[in-house]
């Protein structure tokens, strides 16, 4: 069975004494067990067959090899291992040429490095991205790459995980030739013939001299080590990569390989690897919303944006950057001028940093037009509304859009919280109305919540997913509710943080604990960055409908009443003197908190950082479970991707639902029940969480494609 499949994924063909070995394992020629067995068998055949004088290794389809088969990680290992295959290729006494098109990534590049000569098509992408999966190159990559191109460049590739094109790969010495004709197969074969004609020796990377200058290599490793400990912030594999390269310098090749294997296994077993691999598959899984399979997207050539404030301008930049023409509508000329200025500020910033030329800016701005008249939107295929967060204002805008837009135009709202069904209800074409919830800054942040109201047609949803692709965003399908997936969950864990602040933890301690967990910043820093006034307005709006029994912490309101909205006002939870962006703790804020504790009759107690995180995460996970339970998110992984791409959740933990599975749902539920003893209204266990615990199941079991 296995041998049949191995035959099927690896084809061989003898062409004038050269064995062309083609890996054909769609979609990306990953090196699963059948591929490994097939490659090994092919190289053994080449060794045994006297008519074979050289070998060309290549991949069928768009890619050479996309790497080890990521789906095998964490499962029992199957023989042969990839290092064995690579070693066997390198040991061949007949020259082996790798002919590379498309991706040669991770194990794919390692296979190529085990070959003796390398030629790549112009569009090839070579790289060692294992670090992004919590791993290190584990098939000889940490030993061969520095020997081939030196420690400095090898470390750069392994620690950044970046892809290099053929020209740069040639410059680095990673490959020998760039294919010129566009016919890689023919050129690979010709290269092998040329090597044979020239009696070129078998040239093994293990013997290459890239580490010959030992002092320079040592200096390169030391320089990077100092930087990595600082920059990799809690990541496990970068330091292991350094250790492996150190072994390449200090030890003979075969010993170095053993060190690499040991370090690779440590990475493979780490929860970070599991988190990062979960993130990798989840960000691909979210693209497969049901409507993308059943409906054909509408075409989008012209876009309108209503509102030129923070979000409207950011959305316009995202669209312009993707090459789309944008018409912006504002309520008056002064606001329109401000909207244009917001956009220009983004591009001027890039020019200031030398990342854009004035000519390029002028070319982009040619695609922009502005008006105060809605009629200018008559030709738009899609209009995105980003006006004030006010139902009446939005309904008035949609009435205008209904009046002027052509039939079939998609009418989208960027609302953060409002009921999109209610926005759609008043117009004649609710099937065209959808939520496109961008995150600030909209031209930078990758998340796009595609919010699906009741009456929207499937092709409109499919178009939203297509638009995300065009914009380079990660789309997550969300249902309509207050805050959709992300803001709804945020509101709950943010409330848990407020409870802890009133209960005795300082905002600075909470922020620190959250940063230690792996977030770039804590919730109070985030609030200072976004502006406390936004949450304040929402709280005031909801005051009338708030459950009077719910614990309500007034500290944020006390700060807002003083006009302390955060960075933009020079103070919030932190002090920002002289326009600084990093705040310092503020004794006045601590005094306000003390006074509020007294007013609320709370006797402050101390919290450990661990307890802070247990509560913070329990609140996040519980609401995540509710969101899945109610069908607002299709699966737990959609919650994970939302929190990873929109809210700074540390990627190496995979997202809150993945984290919950790793922590154990029984533990999480027990925490919630314990916290509920003090505040049963806030800490109500999600029915989904209870059900999973009762069944001994986990969130991962719900992650099949919906
Ligand atoms: N193993 C298993 N499945 C893989 C895979 C891999 N290495 N790479 C991609 N896939 C799957 C994807 O999950 C996706 O599956 P789906 O259709 O079911 O969702 C499918 O292949 C297509 O992937 P993309 O949508 O990403 O296709 P693109 O054409 O956009 O990109 C690619 C192709 C550049 C190869 C990209 O898939 C990629 O970057 N893959 C990962 C590369 C990587 O990290 N390799 C290192 C692996 S670790 C390793 O090699 C360890 C070794 O050192 C021992
Ligand atoms: P903003 O106040 O910066 O901008 C709103 C803009 O809309 C203003 O320029 C205003 O002149 C314009 N406007 C108001 N009424 C208009 C009308 N009738 N016609 C044309 N233009 C009109 O607000 P911001 O922050 O850009 O928010 C816009 C929307 O995006 C809101 O619904 C908000 O909830 C949502 N949002 C905000 C995020 C944020 O971080 N600021 C994040 C995601 C969504």
What's the layout of helices and strands?
Layout: H1 2-9, E1 10-15, E2 18-23, H2 33-48, E3 54-59, H3 82-91, E4 96-100, E5 103-105, H4 107-114, E6 117-120, E7 125-127, H5 141-149, H6 151-160, E8 163-165, H7 166-172, E9 177-178, H8 184-197, H9 214-231, H10 237-250, H11 253-268, H12 271-285, H13 290-294, E10 303-306, H14 310-321, E11 326-329, H15 333-352, H16 358-366, E12 368-371, E13 382-385, H17 391-404, E14 410-413, H18 420-425, E15 433-438, E16 447-452, H19 458-471, E17 474-479, H20 486-503, H21 507-517, H22 523-530, H23 532-542, H24 555-561, E18 574-575, E19 584-585, H25 587-600, H26 609-629, H27 636-646, H28 656-663, H29 665-676, H30 687-695
Parallel strand pairs: 2-3, 3-4, 4-6, 5-7, 6-9, 10-11, 10-13, 11-12, 13-14, 14-15, 16-17
Antiparallel strand pairs: 1-2, 7-8, 15-16, 18-19
Helix pairs in contact: 1-2, 2-3, 3-4, 5-6, 5-10, 6-10, 9-10, 10-11, 12-27, 14-15, 20-26, 21-26, 26-29
Written overview of the protein:
The chain has 30 helices and 19 strands. It has 706 residues and is α/β, with parallel strands linked by helices. It has 3 domains: 2-252, 2-enoyl-CoA Hydratase, Chain A, domain 1 (Alpha-Beta Complex), CATH 3.90.226.10; 300-484, 3-Layer(aba) Sandwich (Rossmann fold); 487-705, N-(1-d-carboxylethyl)-l-norvaline Dehydrogenase, domain 2. The strands form 4 sheets. An 8-stranded mixed beta sheet has the order 12-11-10-13-14-15-16-17, sandwiched between helices. The longest helix has 21 residues, at 609-629. Bound molecules: 3-hydroxybutanoyl-coenzyme A (3HC) and 1,4-dihydronicotinamide adenine dinucleotide. 3-hydroxybutanoyl-coenzyme A is lined by residues 27-28, 30, 63, 66-71, 82, 103, 105-107, 110, 129-130, 133, 135, 137-139, 141, 281, 284.
